[in-house]
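Researcher: I'm preparing a figure for a lab meeting and need a structural model of a single chain. I don't have an experimental structure, so a prediction will have to do for now. The sequence is pasted below. Please return the structure as C-alpha cells so I can convert it later.
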Amino acid sequence: MATRPDPLASLARLRRLQTGVARRRVAEEADRLLGAERRAQDTDATLRTEQGAAAPADYAAWIGRGLAERDRAALGAAHAADRLKDRRAALAEARVAERCIEQLMRDRAAATESRLQRKAQAATDDAAGRAAQAARRGG
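Model: Understood. Here is the structure written out cell by cell.
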C-alpha cells in the first residue's frame, strides 16, 4: 500500500523555499540600497567639488540639473531603504511561519509517541492481566 505524502512536511518544505526566496530578496535589496546610497553620495560630492572648481557662471549654468540629480539620487536611496525594510519584514514573517510549522511537526510527533506508549502500556497491562488470571485458574 502506497503511503500518502505528509501534508505538514510538504508545507514545511514549501515554507523553507519561501524563506530562502525572502532571504535572497533581502540581500538583493540591500545591494540596491548600497548602490543608491553610493550614487547619492557621489552626486553630492560632485556638486561640492564642482562648486569649488568651476567659475561661478559655469557653476550656475548647471547647478539646477546637479541639484535635481542629487535629489533624485537621495529619493532613490530612500525608496531603496523602504523596500529593504519591507523585505526584512517579509523575511521575519516567513521565519515565524516556518518555526510554527516546525513546532506543529514536533507536537504531532510527540502526540504520536504518546499514543504509541499508551498502546504499548495497554497491551502490557492486558497481557499481565491475562497472565494473572491464568495463574489464578491454574494455581
